[in-house]
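ok here's DUF4138 domain-containing protein:
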Amino acid sequence: MKTNILFLLFFTSFAFRPCLAQERKILDTIFANDQKNVALFFPKPIRQGITGSDNFVFTYNREAEQYFGLLQATPGKESNLLVVSSNGSVFSYIVKYKEQLNQLNYFVLTSDTIGNEKPVVIDESEINKEELKERDKTYYYDNFCSFLVNRTQRIGRLKKRDQNIVLSVENIVFDKEELYFVIQIENKSSLDYDVNFLNFGIETRQKGKRKSSQTIYERPLFKYSMPSKIREGDTEKLVYVLPKFSLGDDRRVILELNEKNGGRSIKLKVPHKYINNPN
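and the structure:
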């Protein structure tokens, strides 16, 4: 009897050993649909999560940092999901629509990160701390703006056209403590457009019989890919980064594009509702 028990224990241990030895498959593609929530649990709280296409929606708590987010999708082409955690770890996945889901919960490991948003820096003792902080911020702005420029998401129809020059705001995105304005300039004319300036202002409209307005111009924290010239037939995209703010119904944003040594100037007005409800 004792021999049989020892044999049984040996057999059980041997039989299940291959299962324990199996390696975890690296998570690179996530499937979702519009019927169920697919939950992603991360090792650190989520600070930012963005999908590359409108038919995928990733929701997470922006007010209080939490470890999980929910993904849903509608039929359409595959896209990507970029997630940045509170410690700067970056996670990237391909996301696809699938009618029948085999998995609804994903637990992400620290080892799944593709890198960190902060670059590997030189000896901090040799650099002024404020300068180091500014370099890190510029690096983050540059990478996040590059991501937004290549994204297809739009916030609404915000466009002004004059003499075949089209100025539009494609997207307004809130991240951390800043608002990102994705701006597009199209030159549909037969002449090159030399940019003199693109000013960003907040206009306050006075109510009453004598209607008037006052515009206060703001200096962006960061400008990404600001062109000096838009050649005939070309389109340029750029991003203005500003500290987060909200507007009352008597105020709106003004974008003023001015041509150097030319008369093709455009003013685009952005209502307060778009500022108060960014992506």
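+1. The chain has a mean pLDDT of 85.
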